[in-house]
Specification:
Blueprint: H1 6-13, H2 17-24, H3 32-44, H4 51-58, E1 63-68, H5 74-89, E2 93-98, H6 103-112, E3 120-123, H7 133-140, E4 145-148, E5 159-162, H8 164-177, E6 183-187, H9 193-208, E7 218-220, H10 225-237, E8 244-247, H11 250-263, E9 272-276, E10 290-293, H12 296-312, E11 323-325, E12 328-330
Parallel strand pairs: 1-2, 1-3, 3-4, 4-5, 5-11, 6-7, 6-8, 8-9, 9-10
Antiparallel strand pairs: 10-12
Helix pairs in contact: 1-2, 5-12, 8-9, 10-11
Length: about 350
């Protein structure tokens, strides 16, 4: 029996070997009809690509890197699943690098990738990233970089994100409609583009509904959980405490739950809470958390698709491949409107 390789597939379908190869890599240059024929025959003959030989011929590592600030955040875990789905389809390996919200570690990882260890990079930057020279150097070395979720606006490349401004505007408006009069915003970073968009959505929604923007209601948190606990506790223990919290990331919402429990504050009667969160257990919290749910899997998938387009067609305008994917608000009891009940007296 003849060996099942690209040459045999090309012979049986009367196509060139290069066409077969591009079809198996899901190249945009090959029609959907041709791809379907090639894939069907490959499956029928149990064709297994020689990824090692292919990478040597192309001088590619057949590996992409994913650089993220943390893995505990459910958003990034889901985004990685989306990235993996595309990478496996393309016959690529995925290396995960964690910066732990440390800018210097992000720089170190980037320099580690300068030597061609990977063919492309998907990145979500740390909260402290302002100097972007390490990312610019990667691009200068012809290593394509695609941002997802957290991006550097000054870098001219694809940015795959959600509608942070609009959904934050809608979430703030939701709190107001539920009766909130004094809404605090828990910020994680003023440097991040998503942080700026989310805060602006919050601010504009307040103004549109006749509320004043008060500087003391924008609470700057950080990456230290103990610090954040103290900051939020001081806010909610004050005589002039807010009656609603908008958490820019889910870990600040969870910390707020712990603080409310310690201070014996009722959610939502005393404090309403809404947060960006992809936490699967959000409905099981007591009370269930009102979440701004980002389409994390689809964001990861879209980012990977753009990166592979760049790998298959070097020189494309990556900036034009930027994409904004819509988030949604899933309402829980943490923002429920409180209705005062009148009880008849008994004699």
């Amino acid at each position: 029996m003849d060996q099942v390789n690209l040459k045999r597939l090309a012979k049986e379908l009367n196509l060139s070997i290069s066409t077969i190869s591009r079809a198996l890599r899901d190249s945009y240059e090959i029609s959907a009809e041709t791809k379907a024929k090639v894939i069907a025959l490959a499956r029928k003959l149990n064709y297994e690509p020689n990824l090692y030989a292919s990478s040597l011929r192309q001088q590619k590592s057949k590996t992409i890197a994913v650089v993220i600030p943390e893995i505990a955040n459910n958003f990034f875990a889901l985004a990685i699943n989306g990235i993996e789905a595309i990478a496996q389809k393309k016959g690529y390996h995925v290396l995960i690098y964690l910066t732990h919200e440390d800018f210097q570690k992000e720089v170190s990882i980037s320099r580690h990738l300068f030597n061609g260890r990977v063919d492309g990079i998907l990145m979500s930057v740390s909260t402290d990233t302002q100097d972007v020279s390490h990312i610019e150097e990667l691009i200068q070395r012809n290593i394509p970089v695609v941002f997802f979720d957290r991006a550097c606006e000054s870098i001219k490349t694809a940015k795959i994100s959600t509608d942070d401004y609009k959904i934050s505007y809608d979430a703030t408006t939701h709190l107001i409609k539920q009766g909130a009069k004094k809404i605090a915003y828990l910020s994680i970073s003023e440097n991040l583009s998503i942080g700026k968009s989310r805060m602006l959505g919050y601010s504009d929604a307040l103004m549109a509904n006749g509320f004043r923007n008060e500087d003391n209601l924008v609470i700057n948190c950080n990456n230290n959980s103990e610090d954040n606990y103290s900051i939020i506790r001081a806010l909610l223990a004050s005589d002039d405490r807010p009656d609603a919290l908008f958490a820019s990331v889910e870990r600040l919402a969870i910390t707020s739950y712990y603080v409310c429990n310690e201070l014996m504050l009722d959610i939502p009667a005393d404090v309403k809470i809404v947060s960006f969160s992809n936490l699967e257990t959000a409905p099981l919290l007591d009370p269930s958390l009102t979440c701004i749910v980002q389409p994390a899997f689809n964001i990861g998938k879209a980012a990977a698709e753009v990166l592979f387009k760049a790998l298959e067609k070097p020189g494309i305008d990556l900036l034009s491949e930027s994409l904004v994917i819509t988030s949604e608000i899933i309402e829980g009891r943490s923002t429920a409107k409180q209705i005062k009940k009148k009880f008849a007296g008994y004699i």
